[in-house]
Amino acid sequence: MPDSWDDVYNKELNNFSDHGDVGEVWFGEESIFRIIRWLRYNYNGSKEDLIIDLGCGNGMMLVELAREGYQHLVGLDYSKQAIKLASSIISKQEMDSVVSFKECDLLSEKLESSAYSVALDKGTYDAISLSPIQVKEKCSLYIKKVHDIVKPNGLFIITTCNWTDKEIISQFSEYFGLHSVIPTPEFKFAGKVGKLVSCIVLQRIN
Ligand SMILES: C[S@@+](CC[C@H](N)C(=O)[O-])C[C@H]1O[C@@H](n2cnc3c(N)ncnc32)[C@H](O)[C@@H]1O
Fold this sequence. Notes:
By secondary structure, this protein is an alpha/beta fold. It has a single domain (5-16, 24-204), classed as Rossmann fold (3-Layer(aba) Sandwich), CATH 3.40.50.150. 37% of the residues lie in helices and 27% in strands. It has seven helices and nine strands. It has helices spanning 5-19, 30-42, 60-67, 80-92, 124-129, 135-149, 165-171; strands at 50-54, 72-77, 99-103, 116-122, 150-160, 176-182, 186-189, 192-195, 198-204. Strands 3-2-1-4-5-9-6 form a seven-stranded mixed sheet, with helices on both faces. Strands 7-8 form a two-stranded antiparallel ribbon. The longest helix has 15 residues, at 5-19. It is globular. The relative contact order is 0.15. The structure holds S-adenosylmethionine. The site of S-adenosylmethionine (SAM) has 19 residues, from strand 2 and helix 5.
């Protein structure tokens, strides 16, 4: 993980202004479409539901959710440059009426409790898990924060390359139960099956 997300997104912001390149989508574009497809066939809520992308980066997840017809989307990131890039992309797509942004540190900001029907995370818990200091404390704070902002019975959909399905289910088990595992590509090595990326849907239970 980079030392400074602002540096990363500053470069991407320049590329976007110069060439219209939206920059890196973590885990590739397929990681967005597998969530969009899953929601299309499995989500029982409405397109009016409030959905937040935690650590939205360039906001491409929000673009695809808006294309899918979701009407109330929020992108949260603590990198000023990421929010600048994501809002420029959203404006270019003329999606400002359905997407808003919060520039804040998820771990320290007080957010609205039980507000979101769905919270998404693609690579953000991984970034927090790889913090150089106080990792355990930060991870446990993150889990509490997600619990606080998601509605009772709401969903938390996480894509991770740092934790296995079992580890995620266990770490979030105080507040969330397993809803679904969204299939991701598998590989076989020495007779064992593994995955490079996991995508797990948890449901708030407490
Ligand atoms: C690996 S990137 C993923 C970006 C995007 N979700 C994607 O899939 O392309 C992690 C993102 O989380 C953001 N982030 C990390 N820690 C954060 C925190 N405590 N509060 C808010 N955003 C955070 C970073 O600024 C970065 O944009």
